[in-house]
Amino acid sequence: MTRGSRKSWQYFGLGLAWFYLLLWPLLGIRDGELHFAATFAVWLRVAVGATICFALYRLGKAGRLDGVLNPLAAARDAVGDTLARAPRWMLLTPVIVFALAYPMLTNRYAQDVAINVLVYICLGLGLNVVVGLCGLLDLGYIAFYGVGAYTYALLSVHYSVPFWVCLPICATFAAVAGCFIGYPTLRMRGDYLAIVTLGFGEIVRIVINNWMALTGGPNGILGIKSPGIYIPHFVDGSFSFEYLLLRKLEYLYYVILALAAFTIVAVHRINFSRIGRAFEAIREDETAAELMGVDTFRFKLLAYALGAVFGGLAGAFFAARMRFVSPESFTFIESAMVLAMVVLGGMGSIPGVILGALALVALPEAFREFELYRMLAFGGAMAVMMLVRPAGLWPAARMGKRSDDTE
Amino acid sequence: MDYLFQQLINGLTLGGVYALVALGYTMVYGIIQLINFAHGEIFAAGGYLGVILLSYMASQGLMDSHPWFGLAFALILAMGYCAMLAMAVEKVAYKPLRQSSRLSVLLSALGMSIFLQNGLMLTQGVYDKAYPTEFTHGGFEWLGVRVSYMQIGILAVTALLLVLLNTLVFKTRIGKAMRATAQDKVMSALVGIHSDKVISTTFAIGAALAAAAGIMVGLYYGSVRYDMGFVPGIKAFAAAVLGGIGNITGAMIGGLIIGMVEILAAAYIPAGGEYKDVFAFVILIGVLYFMPTGIMGENVDDTRV
Questions:
Q1: Domain containing A103: what range?
Q2: CA–CA separation, B79 vs A295, rounded Å?
Q3: What parts of the sequence cross the membrane (chain B) (predicted)?
Q4: Residue at which a domain ends, from A47, A80, A113
Q5: Listed residue (A267, A308, A325) closest to A172, CA to CA
Q6: What is the pLDDT of residue A394?
Q7: Within a domain: residue A400?
C-alpha cells in the first residue's frame, strides 16, 4: 500500500465517520429516546456499499483492474466501430419496428410506462435545444409544459376544439410564452439566467394555482377530451365518417409515438442546420459568436421558443391523456427531472436524451420497491455524474475541434 | 396606522430571517461564484434539527425548568450540525469540481439540493413536524401593536448574529483571509492563504446562519416541512442579488427589503396574499434587468451578467 493510497483511505474513513455524525441526529433521536442501533444499521449498509465502490475505484486507479477493463474497453470500441460502419437504416429499422409493435407485445402497465417515457423524451429533447445546444441553463422549463397543457385543457373544455387543431395552437402559445420569458432574461448569462428562469417557472405555477376564474386553481380542470379521429364507416353502401375518441391506451401510445418521432426528427434537423451551428457557437463562446456575426440575442430567443414548442406539444398530449390537469404536475421538481435526463444522457445528444429518459422513467419502474428512494438517487446521480462523466452517458458527437469548456 | 406598524414589525422579523439565509448565498457566491442551491436545504435541516432537539429536551423536562437555556443549546447545536453538513456537501460535491465548467458545478449543486431534500423526507417523514410551543407563548401590546416575545427573540438573535458575522469578517484573521480569497483567489494563494480551508469555513459560517434562520422560522410558524427550504432559499437569493451579490452588508439590507415588501404587499395589494411569493421573483428579475450590480454591488464582469 503506497503512501498516497493510505492517505486516501484515511480520508475515506474520516468521511464515513462524518456521515455517521450527520445521520445520527436525524434517525437516532425519536420519541424522547436516543437510539443508536437503528442508525447504525442504515449507516452500515451505506458504509459497506461505499467501501466496495471506493476499493474498486482505488484498484482501477492503481491499474489492478486493467486485466478486466482493457478487454471490455476494446470490445466496446469494436462494437462502436461496427455500429458506426453499419448503414443507418439497419440500426433504425429494428428500433422503429419494435416501437410500432410494442402495444401488441405488452400489457396496459408496460404501455403506460412507455407513454410516460415518450412524454419525457419530448420534454427532454425540447430542453436539450435550450440547454444542450445553446448552453442556456433553464430551470423553469416545465412552465411551457404547463402552458401547453392548460391551453389544450381550456380550449377543449370551453370550446370543444379538437386535439389536432389544438396542437399547433398550444405550440404557438408555448412559443409566445417562451419569448415573453426569454425577452427580459436572455441578456443574462450563466447562473443568473438559471435562477431567473427558475423564478419565472414558479411565477407561472403560482399564477395557475391562484387564478381561480380561469384555471380552477388547485382543483385543476376536469373533463378534457381525448384526441379523436374520423374513421371511414360503411353502412349499407352509404359511406360516412365516424368520430372515434382515442381513449384506449394503445391508441394514445401511437399518438405520443408520432409526437416523439416528430420531435426527434425536428431536433435532429435543427441540430445540423445553420441555426444549430449558431446555437453551438453561442454555447461555446458567446462573445466570439457575436463577433463572428451571430445575432446572439435573436438566436437565444429562438432557442427558447423552439424548446418551448416541444414542451407545449408534450403538455397538450399530457392534458389529453390524463383528461385532467392541476398545478401540481408543473412543480420545480419536474423541471429538475427533465434537466436530469438531459444531463445524465448527455447534453446536446439526441440518443443520450432518449437514454436518459429511459433511465429515469423506466428504470425506477423496475425497482418499484425502492420508489421512495427515487428522487434521492436522482439527486445523488446528478452530483456523481458531474464528477465522473460530465459529458453524460452518451455524449454528443462533436464535429471538428473546439475549445474546452473551462469558463 | 397601528396596522401599518404591525405589518412593519412582521416584515422586520421575516426580513431578518431572509437576511440570515441570504448571507450564506452571498458569501459563497463571493468566494467561488457558485449559486449554492443546497443552501435552502441546509436551512430546512436547521429547522429539523431544532424540532428534533427541542422535542427531545421537552420530553426530558428540560424545557420546563430552563427554557432559555434549552433554546440557546438547540440553536448552537443546530448551527454546528448544519456547518458540518455544509462542509461535507462542499467536500463531496463542489471541491472536486473546482476546475470544471460553471454549468457542471451548478448542476452538482442542484443534485445535492434534491438529494438533501429527499434525505430529510426519508428520515423525517413527508408530513409537517410541529415544534413544541409551550414556551413560545406570550407577548405584549405597545402603542396598539402586538409584539410577541418570539418576534423580539428572533430580532435579537438575528441582530446578534449579524454583529458577530461583521466582527468575524472585518476584524479577524480568517475574515481577512475570506475577503482576500473572494477578491483574488490566485493572488491570495500566492501570499500563503489556504484557499480550500477558507472556502470550507465560508460554507460552514453561511450554513450556521441558515440553521439559525431555520430554527427561528420553525418556532415562528410552529412547524417544519421537508421542502420548506426551496421557496425561502430563492427569496433569500433574490435578497442577495438585490443587495449586490458578494456584498455582506448588501445581503442584510436586501433581506430586510424583501421581507418588508412581501409582508406589505400581502397586506395592502388586493389578492396580494395569494401572490406573495411572486413579489420576490419580480424584484429579482427587475434588479437583474435594470440594476445587475444591486444596491451595494461593485462592477460585475460579463461572465455573470
A1: 92-388
A2: 49
A3: 12-35, 42-62, 68-93, 105-127, 147-169, 203-224, 236-266, 278-297
A4: A80
A5: A308
A6: 80
A7: no
ipTM of model over 0.90: no
- Domain count within chain A: 2
Q: Which domain holds residue B194?
A: 19-237
Among B32, B105, B110, the strongest candidate for a mutation testing the A interface, having the largest count of A CBs within 10 A, is: B110
3-state secondary structure of A117: helix
pLDDT digits (tens, 9 = 90+) for A233-266: 777 777 777 777 777 788 889 889 999 999 999 9
* pLDDT-flagged residues of chain A (< 70): 1, 189-190, 397-407
Partner residue opposite B281 with nearest CB, options A202, A383, A407: A202
Within 268-287 of A, beta carbons closer than 8 Å to B belong to: 287
Let me know whether A177 and A290 are in one domain: yes
Q: Tell me, what's the pLDDT at A407?
A: 40
Which chain A residues contact residue B106 at CB under 8 A? 137, 190-191, 194
Whether residue B8 is contained in a domain is answered as no
Q: A103 and A68 in one domain?
A: no
User: If DSSP states are collapsed to H, E and C, what string results for chain B?
Assistant: CHHHHHHHHHHHHHHHHHHHHHHHHHHHHHHHCCCCCCHHHHHHHHHHHHHHHHHHHHHCCHHHHCHHHHHHHHHHHHHHHHHHHHHHHHHHHHHHHCCCCHHHHHHHHHHHHHHHHHHHHHHHCCCCEECCCCCCCCEEEECCEEEEHHHHHHHHHHHHHHHHHHHHHHHCHHHHHHHHHHHCHHHHHHCCCCHHHHHHHHHHHHHHHHHHHHHHHHHHHCEECCCCCHHHHHHHHHHHHHHCCCCHHHHHHHHHHHHHHHHHHHHHCCCCCCCHHHHHHHHHHHHHHHCCCCCCCCCCCCCCC
Residue B10 lies in a domain: no
What's this model's pTM, rounded to 2 decimal places? Answer: 0.87
Question: In chain B, which residues have their Cβ closer than 8 Å to the Cβ of A373?
Answer: 118, 122
Question: Based on the domain organization, do A246 and A184 belong to the same domain?
Answer: yes
The residues, any chain, with a CB within 8 Å of residue A228's CB and separated by 6 or more, are A162, A163, A243, A244, A245, A246
Residues A106 and A76 in one domain: no
CB contact under 8 A, B275 and A189: no
Cβ–Cβ gap A372/B97 under 8 Å? no
Indicate if A73 and A140 belong to the same structural domain: no
- What pLDDT score does B57 carry? 87
**Residue contact A339–B110, C-beta within 8 A:** yes
The residue out of A80, A104, A121 marking a domain boundary is: A80
Q: What is the pLDDT of residues B164-197, one digit of tens each?
A: 999 998 899 999 999 898 888 888 989 999 989 9
- Residue among A32, A386, A387 whose CB faces B60 most closely: A32
A11 and A160: one domain?
Answer: no
Number of domain units in chain B: 1
Domain membership of residue A299 (yes or no) is yes
Using CA coordinates, name the residue in chain A closest to B301.
A189
Q: Is residue A57 part of a domain?
A: yes
Q: Please tell me whether residues A75 and A135 are part of one structural domain.
A: no
- pLDDT value, residue A406: 43
| pLDDT < 50 stretches in chain B | 299-305
**Quick check: A181 contacting B, CB < 8 Å?**
no
What is the amino acid identity at position A243? Y
Residues A280 and A151 in one domain: yes
A184 vs B contacts (CB less than 8 Å): 285, 289
- Residue B274 inside a domain? The answer is no
Question: Residue B195 domain-assigned?
Answer: yes
Q: Does residue A373 lie in a domain region? A: yes
Q: How far is A109 from chain B (nearest CA, A)?
A: 27
